[in-house]
Amino acid sequence: MTSATSIDDLVEELYLQRRRAWEAALVTAQNFLETIADEILEDVDRDRLNAQTARIKDPGRSADKLRRYLSEGRIDEPTDADAVAEALPDLVGVKVLCKTPRDQLSFVAALERACNDPECSVRFAQPPTDYVAFPKPSGYRAYHAVLVVRVATHQGDLDVKVEVQVKTRLQDAWGELTHEDMYKPGEALKPTKKHTDYAAHMAHLLDQVDAMADDLAAQLDSLTAASKDGGVLAADPIPKDPDFISARVTRTGPRYALAVGPDGRRGLVPARSVKAVIGSTDRIAVNDYLEVGDFIDVVVEDSEDALYYHLTSQPPRRKPAKKRKR
C-alpha cells in the first residue's frame, strides 16, 4: 500500500504543478457562472445570485481524504500526481448561493443549457447530481456539477475540474446549523439517530421556509413588475384628492425604488412609474435614474396592496442607461 509519506509527496507535487492553473480555472469558472447569473437577473436584483465563494482545498485535507479513500477501497493506489487529481474532483470549487428556490431552478436550467451547448468552452465532466430533487437521507439539499475548464499553461492546454455547488442560502445554512462538518465521514463525531433525525427535520423546515420565501418574492414581483407590452406606459390613475409630496430615495434596484415621505412613511416607486414619466419604450432599470439620497416629486397612491409613490416630474439621472435586451 502507498505509504503516508508517498501520499503527502504526491499531493505536494500535484499542488506545485497545478496551483496556478487551478487559480486561473477558478477565475474562468466564476466569470462563466456570473455571466449566467447576469443573463437571468438582467432586470431584477442582482444579489439574488452570488458565485463569489471559491476555494482550492487545503493540501493536508486532500491528503487525508485520499488516504481515507484508499483505506475504504474506493480508489486504486495513485502512482503519480495525475492519479491524485483524478481521484479528487473537488480540489477546486465554487459555491453559487441563491436567494430562493426559483432562482436556484432558473440558474440550474441556464447552467445546463450553457454546458450542453456544443459551442460552449465549459462542459460537464459527468452528469450533475441533483440533491434538491432527491435529497440525501440526512436532509442535505444542493445541486452539484463538475465543470471542465480549459486553462492555457506553458506546457499546453490543461483541463481543470471545478466542482460547483448551487444552493439556496437556507440550504447552505443547514450545514452550519446541523454541524455537518463534524459528522462527515472521517471526522471525529459519528452521527446518532437523534442527530440524523434532527438534521432531516431541520432540512424539511428550512425547505418550507424556502418555499414561503418564493411566495413572498413572487408577490413583490407582481407589485413591482413593469408593463410587458413593450409600449409607453400611461401614468397610473391619479387618486381623488391627490397628495403631492417630496420624498427622499432610501433604496434603489433594477425594478423599484423605496422613498420616505415627510410623514416618515416609506413608499414604493415601481419601474412602471419611472417609465411613464420618461416616456420610455424600452425596459429600464430604476437605479439608472434614481440614487439613494435623491429627492423626488411624487403623488401618493395608498392602495390595498402597497403604498406607491408615483413620479410627477423627470427623475434625476446619475448615469447613462444601459442597453438592455428587448
TrEMBL record:
Residues 54-189 form the RelA/SpoT domain. Pfam families: RelA_SpoT. The lineage of its organism: Bacteria, Bacillati, Actinomycetota, Actinomycetes, Mycobacteriales. SMART domains: RelA_SpoT. InterPro entries: GTP_Pyrophosphokinase, NT_sf, RelA_SpoT. It comes from the Bacteria. This is RelA/SpoT domain-containing protein. CDD domains: NT_Rel-Spo_like.
